[in-house]
Specification:
Elements: H1 19-25, H2 28-31, H3 35-51, H4 57-76, H5 88-100, H6 113-149, E1 154-159, E2 162-168, H7 169-194, E3 196-197, H8 213-219, E4 224-225, H9 229-234, H10 237-263, E5 271-272, H11 291-314, H12 329-352, E6 354-355, H13 357-364, H14 371-382, H15 386-402, H16 412-418, H17 426-430, H18 432-438, H19 447-461
Parallel strand pairs: 3-4
Antiparallel strand pairs: 1-2, 5-6
This protein binds arginine (ARG).
């Protein structure tokens, strides 16, 4: 071994790496984010090595205390990370050696960087599942407040972005509470499934040392050790599940963001965004742009990109570890950071946003939004088959449209011209308030139904 060769694994090497080799090989520029997890894992491993008699209690003590010093140095922010030492694992170990000397060399007994990195990354992603859940819960609460304030505000419900039927603001807000509820549960499911420890799988085959994998698993908050050492070092499902859950969540945020962009436009005026979450234009003085919403709308691009990226890295990799897998981290870090930011920005926008009940109501009252109510009335009161009622209503919509009116503005005579059995009782169902109040089926838009769901979610989130 020459002086140039790697001090951690360079025993059989006569020369050090080419600079480009070092550049492509090193991960320390990004995997330093795993420092805390790496040190936690190493401390658990050292304690286990002592408990099983593989190293002495004194060595374990020196290692465990030294590792805490390394952690505080790293968290202090001026740790001299070295590219020559490749990654976080070897940077930590090399510094430990400087601090405690010979015992540091015993830490890597019965362990490999393969099970080490799998453990560190799992711990990191597990934390992100918890963070995502908590960000989602906070956002759900902001939606709940909006829903409560406007449980009975009438607005147009859309299909094809065309006015469909009147719905309530509260109902619309609660739709997102449901979506986010599924997102939180996906992160919870992923977390539960990933909560098994790879540590002790060593390079790939396990080890001949009498280690106690149960002990390290428990010390790190895992439910149990992974049952197959090859799988333990080769698996990145946990990251893929995190990214998949993040992608679905980001897609939901993108849909809500798009609605905020539309709703805050001068053409809609359904909502006013706060100054705190808007920006101005450098040329058009009147402008107030929903930039935060637009950026949240876009985040799905990079998050889904990360998901596709990692699937593509993992596909076709033979068992077990391949260096390809070092490419698993940056995109997960980026996706997690951006998901948390998007959740926080959406929460801020919603908490600050003012809805405009007057504009919502005016929009709901146009566009023949109660045509279905008219057709339903014909079925209920005049005994028409629904298909015929649909046809009769269609002819009345055409008549109203040709006169530039809405349905409630048609005279009773005009109504009767479409079907003789129509009476003035029909006008009751043509109002938007009665329309939403009538939709009392479970999960429907009637304020009483919406309040049932608000109460259920308030309980669930408290
Ligand atoms: N930096 C590496 C990674 O992130 C650590 C594992 C290295 N293992 C190895 N056999 N070279 O994947």
């Amino acid at each position: 071994m020459t002086d140039d060769a790697n001090q951690m694994w360079g025993g059989r090497f006569a020369a050090g790496p080419d600079a480009i080799m070092e550049a492509i090989n090193a991960s320390i520029s990004f995997d330093q984010r795993l420092a805390r997890q790496d040190i936690e894992g190493s401390r658990a491993h050292a304690a286990m090595l002592a408990a099983t008699g593989i190293i002495t209690d004194n060595d374990a003590k020196a290692i465990r205390e030294g590792l805490l010093t390394v952690l505080s140095e790293i968290e202090g922010g001026n740790f001299p990370f070295s590219i020559a030492l490749e990654d976080i694992h070897m940077n930590v170990e090399a510094r430990l050696k400087e601090l405690v000397g010979e015992p540091a060399g015993r830490l890597h007994t019965a362990r490999s960087r393969n099970d080490q990195v799998a453990t560190d990354f799992r711990l990191w992603v597990r934390d992100q599942c918890d963070a995502a859940k908590s960000g989602i819960r906070t956002l759900q609460k902001a939606l709940l407040s909006q829903a409560e304030a406007g449980a009975d505000w009438v607005m147009p419900g859309f299909t094809h972005l065309q006015t469909a039927q009147p719905v309530t603001w509260g109902h619309h807000m609660m739709a997102y509470v449901e979506m986010l509820g599924r997102d939180a549960s996906r992160f919870g499911d992923a977390r539960a499934r990933m909560n098994e420890s790879p540590l002790g799988a060593a390079a790939l085959a396990g080890t001949s040392f009498p280690i106690d994998r149960e002990a390290t698993a428990i010390a790190l908050g895992f439910d149990r050790p992974m049952a197959n050492s090859l799988d333990a070092v080769a698996d990145r499902d946990f990251a893929l599940e995190f990214l998949s859950s993040a992608s679905i969540c980001a897609m939901h945020l993108s849909r809500l963001a798009e609605e905020l962009v539309i709703w805050s436009s001068a053409q809609f005026r359904f909502v006013t965004m706060s100054d705190r979450f808007s920006t101005g234009s450098s040329i058009m003085p009147q402008k107030k742009n929903p930039d935060a919403a637009e950026l949240v709308r876009a985040k799905i691009g990079r998050i889904l990109g990360a998901t596709v990226g990692l699937f593509t890295v993992m596909k076709g990799l033979p068992l077990t570890y391949s260096k390809d897998m070092q490419e698993d981290k940056e995109q997960v870090f980026d996706a997690a950071d951006n998901l948390m930011l998007a959740l926080a920005a959406m929460e801020g926008m919603l908490a600050d946003m003012t809805a405009n009940p007057g504009a919502l109501r005016a929009a709901a009252s146009s566009g023949f939004s109660t045509a279905t109510d008219l057709a339903d009335w014909l079925v209920r009161e005049a005994g028409l088959p629904f298909r015929e009622a649909h046809h009769v209503t269609g002819s009345l919509v055409a008549l109203a449209e040709s006169e530039g009116k809405d349905l409630p503005d048609l005279t009773l005579d005009q109504m009767k011209s479409a079907h003789a059995s129509i009476t003035d009782g029909v006008y009751e169902v043509l109002g938007v308030d009665n329309s939403v109040r009538s939709r009392t089926s479970y999960g429907g838009t009637a304020p009483e139904q919406v309040r049932v769901q608000i109460a259920r979610w308030k309980e669930a989130l408290s």
